[in-house]
User: Fold this.
Amino acid sequence: MLNDAMTSMTMSVTIFNIDFTGLQTADVNDNLAAAHIHASPTATTVNAPVVWGFFGSPFNDNNPNDTVVTPFATGVGGTITGKWDAPEGNGTTLTDQLANILSGNSYINFHTTQYGGGETRGFLQIVPEPSTVLLFGTGFGGLLALAMRRHRRSGAAVEQI
Assistant:
């Protein structure tokens, strides 16, 4: 979620079948080694560089460290939450990457012991702040009420026979 001022982005990602602790499975190949956001104008067709690391190396959630890693109590996987603050980044900043993020040219990549180049990736979807959703909902509700009022006026002029 990108804040209204576009100075920070929070995320929550849940991943299944990747071992968060090294103890969720006996197989060491599925152990989580790193997780990052990658971005570039060509990210949908070519591997993009790491722009913000939130698990493993590079780790860029350091001003302050907002990352919380929560392995599943049962099963394999877990949830990671974090916040990319304005001064953080891997040789870049959130501000520098906004165009890539907003245009769909950024993804999260989870790297495992077996697949150091990336086990799985998912493209970022920006979710508006609750205040934006509320504002949109209020505006839509107002338009709906106006349309209903106009509809009632036009219907009131028709006589039934």
Summary: The chain has two helices and seven strands.
